[in-house]
Amino acid sequence: MVLIAPSLLAADSANFEKEISALEDAHADLLHFDVMDGHFVPNMTFGSHVLKQLKKCTKIPFDVHLMVNNPEKFIPWFAEAGADYLTFHLEATSHADELIDTIHQYGIKAGVTLKPSSDIKLLSQLKKIPDLVLIMSVEPGFGGQAFISDTPQKIVMAKNMFGRNTLIEVDGGINEQTARLCIDAGADILVAGTAVFKNGNYCNNIKILKGEKL
Ligand code: DX5
Ligand code: ZN
Asked: Is 131 a catalytic residue?
């Protein structure tokens, strides 16, 4: 069964507590928390202080996606603030194996990801096994973009590279149609901003993405 991780980037940030409570009622599996530094990607979002506050509102695990330069500096901040999954970009570091170890030392799950233009084969250079591989299906930085069509092939490649203990997550441009393509390719987790938060019916929107009957 695929898991759905609503992206808080698309939530009403003036009412996070209300939004998270509605996502609990809608049975969201994870909360996707996009961290952008204005350097690695052109946009900026939330810091670790916001995560620390939001952790008090919910038991849903936080899936933190670091889109930052120098992830070595930020990983301790977000681990201590309560990340349950902590994912960094391989383009932003030359110490990926050490960072996977650092994340594990906090007792949380380690994820790695790549921009869509980066060679997926970079994943095979890892010596440590990540708990999660995030396939970016849009250019990181903004919500509401169109799904990049070669993503399902990348899901299959990533699936074949790692064992069953590594979850494959997809982020960007997920809707009813593209969710189906990703599920069929073997994705374990789908991140969705626009498709969950549109029209206010989070419960139905999540069911639709899972391919469940309404
Ligand atoms: C993009 C972010 C995504 C984004 C997805 O940089 O990593 O998590 O919120 O938004 P949608 O689902 O609208 O494409
Ligand atoms: Zn993301």
From this structure: no
